[in-house]
Target: Serine racemase
Amino acid sequence: MVHKTPFLRSKFIDELSGKNVFFKCEHLQKTGSFKALGAFYAINILIDEKKSEFSVITHSSGNHGQALAWAAMQYGVPCTVVVPNDAPSSKLAAMRAYGATLVECDPIERKSTVAKLCSAAVYEFVDPHDDYRVMAGQGTVAMEFLEQVPHLDAILIPVGGGGLVSGIAVAVAELNPKIKVFCVEPEGKRLEDSLISGER
Model:
């Protein structure tokens, strides 16, 4: 149900970098991002494990919430998304269109709101980042990319919560450990400090 996304080239970027650069177009994936891969895989794993009806819950300001709502809708699984009250209206509209029930909260209370809801009802929590099912699903980006471009020397991955890079790093280590994996993050973020300290 997910798309096999294409890759694109740019002569300008090749000349600027002095490298052959390939762009994997995950913005053309279902719901507009790679998040659909992780959410869809997580729902499928839950279906296999539960063998009965269940509901899912997550917190998100946009892409993961859309992805989980879409994936849940494919199988008629009820989905609740805790959203910060400053989330973009377009993202909220998309989640509702995919059938999600939205619960708004203060941006810093997303996790605690999920915890309260889970204490009052039975939900399967699908974390946007720290969920091995989500990471595994997102890691399939690397599998598909290497089918399309087998001779890659390195993969550069934007880092937010870390789910995508975790999944890709594991997949690449298994498929071709010679490929280098680089994390790319906005200036001011301190992923390396987190890795060294073992804390977020």
User: Anything to note?
Assistant: The mean pLDDT is 94. The first strand starts at residue 7 and ends at 8.
